[in-house]
Amino acid sequence: MSVKEIPLIINGEKIRSTTDTWLDVLNPATQEVVARVPMATKEEVAAAVASAAEAFKTWSKVSLTNRMRIMLNLQQLVREHTQELAELVTLEHGKTLPDAEGEVGRSLEAIENACSVTRLQLGEMANNAATGVDTYTLNKPIGVGLGITAFNFPLMLPSFMFPPAIACGNTFILKPSEQAPSSTILLVELALKAGVPVGVLNVVHGGPDVVNQLIEADAVKAVSFIGSTGVGTHVYNHATKHGKRAQSMMGAKNHMVIMPDANKDRAINDLLGSAFGAAGQRCMANPVTILVGKTRDWLPEIVERAKLMKVGPGTQRDADLGPVVSPQAKARIISLLDSGVEQGATLLVDGRNCQVEGYPNGNFVGPTLFTNVTTDMDIYKQEIFGPALCVLEVETLEEAIEIINANPNGNGTSIFTSSGWNARKFENEIDVGQVGINVPIPVPVAYFSFTGSRGSKLGDLGPNGKQVISFWTYTKSVTARWFEPDHQDGKDIHTTISMK
Q: Coiled coil: which residue ranges (predicted)?
């Protein structure tokens, strides 16, 4: 059986790369090769940049209304292809089909936010700012945008990027992860079918050399990245060094605080879902819980429910979590879990030797739970990006807040409580950009911006909401005075700067 080859998309056409370097895309549940992805040549990358730069000359002049209509077409096509998109995500990423379908839904939210561009991309005006003078601002597209996305959300992350960028009048080059590219390619094909013109949206694949070439291209004006901290730091520094606007959403170590007055069943279920869903491969997962006071007595029940969670291939709808993305990812996760045991944490649930019947080659790691974790252990300090939960115990909410604020990351945190006083104290004193109150994964709906902070983010503006429009546009201020056709101003020369 022939293996599917992932195309480049340049100037509106699917192109077979001429490269001699192709990578296998594997089904994480079986290790079957399901596709091959090319590492684009320098010439192909240059062609994508040239296509986007040329298309910007005309696309930037298209009306807001017509750009909005294309986004409306895209959201309808994505909705119609939900099942096909989700199945491709499960095939290459490994997450369960219900979780993949949920990802399609979050992608739709981001696209629908881009449908609001006619309201979001508005300037301001002061009539008669001075006598006979009007001042107003125009939010103009900046040029060619670049998006670099991670493997863990191959639909949602691109949807955070190219729909708002092109809705604002920019053109775009997308560099998706080579580990799960098929659903991303289908999403781009749907965008072209929706009416995105030739050259406005391009896709290339590759590693560090391709990324650096794209960043360094003169036509590229802004770079958006979502992925690991190491790569994101390089992308941000390299982009800003070359004068580009940049944003990097990066790694995390999120914490959930459970207070004794919380709804017990809901808190435990949400804790386990947020820690182990998608096999922990979410930057917004909750890999740390802090049990406050008497909630430490809930630990046996937390352990028992964790042991009941079902591991299986993503196509098995009753599975709670699927495999991790690759053998390399599994090896890294197991190494970190081993270090937890070696450094003195107590292992109450051990998923290191997880076996799934009928899938002997799958990258499966089962739910894993540690207690007696200290903040100097590697399992606490590093982002495991696997189905592992570290449990800390404290006496007071103040101690929990102190632990979270001492952690360098700031993507998200949450508290489970029935006390409005506790919730308000937490939201005001916690130094983290996204806070959940009885919500385990505090990513807001897409018409609010993603506001991760501190070590989890580089750049002032985040994806989605109003901030995404600010990122993909620049503000042009116009000060205008119009005179009557027969106006005479005399011979006085004005040397002051005031306008009254």
A: none
